[in-house]
Design brief:
Layout lengths: L9 H12 L5 H8 L3 H13 L8 H43 L6 H5 L4
């Protein structure tokens, strides 16, 4: 059976690289001390120089980001529905006001209630 791969957190990786950059420890010493291959440390340094050493997110973080996007989309949908309902309410109010502007046989009773 092969060996299982060790997960190295971005924080741990950055700590090693920062110690090397500040001169506290050499690459070879860091490899021995942290039990990480020298070639892996060199790979990290190269990737960082290229700007490609991004912190990889965990499965949980990716799930939360996906859930966040879905919730934002739902909130946007609900906001659009609320705006539509507000416009509909405004239209209903205007149409009711339009009915009361002209006295007709249909709305005559509502005007008689106010007169004494």
């Amino acid at each position: 059976m092969g060996q299982s791969r060790r997960k190295i957190s971005p924080e741990f990786r950055n700590r090693i690289l920062n110690e090397i950059d500040t001169g506290q420890i050499s690459t070879s010493q860091a490899a021995r001390h942290y039990q990480v291959s020298r070639s892996l440390i060199e790979y990290w340094k190269k990737r960082r120089r290229e700007g490609k050493l991004a912190d990889q997110s965990t499965a949980r973080e990716r799930q939360l980001e996906r859930e966040n996007r879905e919730l934002k989309a739902k909130v946007g949908e609900l906001i659009m529905q609320m705006e539509h309902i507000k416009k509909l309410q405004h239209w209903v109010r205007q149409s009711k006001n339009a009915d009361t502007l002209v006295i007709t046989a249909e709305n005559l009773d509502q005007f008689r209630k106010g007169a004494k």
